[in-house]
């Protein structure tokens, strides 16, 4: 699984990376970015390489929701934050889960399992009676 981490707190990013590798040693962390600016540049160029994005909400240069207004994100996002007041906003974009810090390994693992179930349901079954399957980009 190819993952992008958007997190401006180094200890939190390192912990997330450790947990991801503990969950699946084959996880490939493509980049760990700390700002809206860097994230927009990366996503415009390399989003196609990703399977999943972990995104903190409060970054060094603003709220990560600004990223969505600058680039169309077509990959699932798991939000990681210390603030619960942004949950509704997170699910209005490509948020598939919302993890409160400090993140526990069991919460991360459950979130990744939830994503697997969603992918299986969306890709493995016909969509509303239509025989065609959703392309992976639709997730």
UniProtKB/TrEMBL annotation:
InterPro entries associated with the record: CheY-like_superfamily (IPR011006), Sig_transdc_resp-reg_receiver (IPR001789), WalR-like (IPR039420)
Positions of transmembrane segments: none
Keywords: DNA-binding, Phosphoprotein
Chain positions found as 4-aspartylphosphate: 56
SUPFAM superfamilies linked to this entry: CheY-like (SSF52172)
Molecular function terms, GO-annotated: phosphorelay response regulator activity; transcription cis-regulatory region binding
GO terms for cellular component: cytosol; protein-DNA complex
Any Gene Ontology biological process: regulation of DNA-templated transcription
Domain Response regulatory, residue spans: 2-116
Name of the protein in question: Response regulator
Origin species: Okeania hirsuta
